[in-house]
Amino acid sequence: MQSGTFDEVLGLEEQFYHDGLQQGLADGVRAGQIEGRTFGLEKGFEKYIESGRLFGKSLVWANRIPRSQQQPDDQDTTQPEAASRISPATPNQQDSLPMTLTSLPKIQRLERHLKVLHALSEPESLSTENTEEAVSDFDDRLKRAEGKTKIIERLVGEGREEVDGGPTNTDEYVHNISTKD
């Protein structure tokens, strides 16, 4: 009997282990790249949607600010004028009356914050490149735009709770819950 034959059989387990490890690593790298790309696309899409939502809010708020009768020609006219203003109608008049927006107070501070919010969330100026610098810039602009949105919501008296239809403070919320029972 030759001793080389048994060495090959005894080394089979080690060879299969090594081959399986190499194949598992290759499959893991490929699956990780696919999963990472999918996750990156999902997160990027979520961020871009949030940026678009903030941009839309800036347009609505800007159109709710009363305009003076005489506008200088050099003023930025990229924002469309509001055709109508939204206010609640009585229940029996909901279908016959057009919805109108209520005007916001003409406050210089509010206008400055709106201009900055509009510039931060403007889709044309946002980079969609997949580089470290572009992603960092996008994230920074999104955080700053969210901060400006909170400031503007406080200035105009609108908040996340009002939009969702919930009460605007916790005392009113607790009172509503306790009176339901």
Automatic annotation (TrEMBL):
Residues 172-181 have a biased composition (Basic and acidic residues). Residues 87-103 have a biased composition (Polar residues). Residues 66-103, 159-181 are annotated as: Disordered. Residues 69-80 have a biased composition (Low complexity). Coiled coil: none annotated. InterPro entries: LTO1_adapter. It comes from the Eukaryota. This is Uncharacterized protein.
